[in-house]
């Protein structure tokens, strides 16, 4: 049973001041893009994980034990049904690790769907979304895919109509960035941030109107400043991408992946070519929106 799940980008990511538990209220718009992890679930006596890189992704930071979010998803699903079961999970990883593209969340969502099928559980969608929210604030969106609004801490997802054909130039960075560290830096830089983040009216209107120029103008990420503050070279990377791209450029989530948006495939591939010629080692082109976690191969 193989399930595919996509990377996410945040078209807008507005962050409010933290709750007492340290989590930050968000107003975000997610989009699933065509960089994928495939998770294959098979019967096993104990929990086992294998990870295979796809397209040169550095998988050295991916835990191969119960720290892997896919295993935690499987354990939570089994517990939800009162089952004492384990499985083997093989991950083909095409989503850069710790890049702000939510690859771990994609694997967790894929594992929930794959194990639900493998074990014939027929878990209701609302229960799967509830389990996903307990695994991480990005995981419910990884189940849903498409384009969606994220409220609460990011886990309260509402699908949005998006007839657009968006093309993303995805520029991964060599190292990863820790999401909690970037949120802590946000708190240091914005000690008086209001608890309620501003709503993304302009971006929602641009999506509803299918207005690419307005969409590009409304892209925004409150974590870009904190990420650059923690890693100043990232500012140079953003400037390099801006110098080679005619449209909007922003950081992906908590970074350090940099994104450039184009309305056409040709525009995106042109930017990719220019960045490779400028010496950037790895540049992907992806499209969005694409589907959430879905079965791609049944057990033969
Ligand atoms: C920043 C975002 C933007 O979509 O994603 P990435 O760019 O990292 O993929 C998300 O908010 C990350 O979501 P996710 O990676 O699922 O975070 P979680 O596992 O829920 O939380 C990891 C840690 O990030 C911080 N965190 C996360 C979400 C949130 N709304 N407020 C927070 O302060 C907390 O320190 C938390 O312990
Ligand atoms: N299946 C997984 N894939 C990737 N990382 C994982 C996974 N399970 C746990 N992790 C841990 O989660 C961290 C963040 O991973 P990832 O989801 O790729 O990035 P981000 O949160 O920046 O979007 C990694 O550094 C790794 O330690």
What does this structure look like?
With 300 residues, this protein is of the alpha+beta class. It has a single domain (1-300), classed as 2-Layer Sandwich (Ribosomal Protein S5, domain 2). Helix content is 34%, strand content 27%. It has 10 helices and 12 strands. Strands 1, 2, 3, 4, 5, 6, 8 and 12 form an 8-stranded mixed β-sheet that branches. A 4-stranded antiparallel β-sheet has the order 9-10-7-11, covered by helices on one side. Strand 5 and strand 6 form a beta hairpin. The longest helix has 16 residues, at 103-118. The chain binds 4-diphosphocytidyl-2-C-methyl-D-erythritol 2-phosphate and adenosine-5'-diphosphate. 4-diphosphocytidyl-2-C-methyl-D-erythritol 2-phosphate binds next to strand 1, strand 2 and helix 5.
Specify the CATH class: Alpha Beta
* Element order: H for helix, E for strand: EEEHEHHHEEEHHHEHHEEHEE
| CATH architecture classification name | 2-Layer Sandwich
Could you tell me the mean pLDDT? 96
| Radius of gyration from CA coordinates | 19 Å
The count of helical stretches stands at 10
Q: Which term fits the overall shape?
A: globular
Number of strands: 12
Characterize the biggest β-sheet.
8 strands, mixed
In the CATH hierarchy, the third-tier topology is known as Ribosomal Protein S5, domain 2
Low-confidence stretches: none
Strand content: 25-35%
Distance between the termini: 8 Å
- Fraction of residues in helices? 25-40%
List of distinct ligands in this structure: 4-diphosphocytidyl-2-C-methyl-D-erythritol 2-phosphate, adenosine-5'-diphosphate
Number of domains: 1
């Amino acid at each position: 049973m193989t399930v595919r799940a996509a990377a996410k980008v945040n078209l807008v990511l507005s962050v409010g001041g933290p709750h007492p538990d340290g989590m930050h209220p968000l107003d975000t718009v997610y989009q699933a893009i065509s960089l994928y992890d495939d998770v294959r679930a098979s019967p096993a006596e104990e929990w086992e994980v294998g990870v295979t890189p796809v397209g040169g992704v550095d998988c050295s930071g991916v835990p191969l034990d119960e720290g892997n979010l896919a295993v935690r998803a499987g354990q939570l699903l089994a517990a939800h049904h009162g089952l004492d079961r384990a499985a083997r999970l093989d991950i083909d990883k095409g989503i850069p690790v710790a890049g702000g593209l939510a690859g771990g969340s994609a694997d967790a969502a894929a594992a929930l769907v794959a194990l639900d099928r493998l074990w014939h559980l027929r878990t209701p969608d609302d229960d799967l979304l509830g389990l996903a929210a307990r695994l991480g604030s990005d995981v419910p969106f990884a189940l849903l895919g498409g384009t969606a609004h994220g409220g609460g801490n990011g886990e309260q997802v509402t699908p949005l109509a998006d007839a657009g054909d968006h093309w993303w130039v995805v520029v991964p960075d060599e190292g990863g960035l820790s999401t909690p560290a970037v949120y802590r830096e946000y708190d240091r830089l914005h000690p008086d941030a209001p608890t309620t983040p501003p709503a993304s009216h302009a971006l929602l209107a641009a999506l509803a109107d299918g207005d690419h120029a307005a969409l590009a103008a409304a892209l925004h990420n409150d974590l870009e400043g904190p990420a650059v503050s923690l890693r100043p070279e990232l500012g140079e990377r953003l400037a390099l991408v801006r110098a080679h791209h005619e449209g909007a450029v922003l950081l992906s989530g908590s970074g350090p992946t940099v994104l450039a948006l184009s309305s056409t495939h040709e525009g995106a591939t042109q930017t990719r070519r220019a960045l490779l010629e400028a010496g950037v080692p790895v540049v992907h082109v992806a499209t969005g929106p694409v589907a959430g976690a879905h079965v791609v191969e049944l057990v033969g």
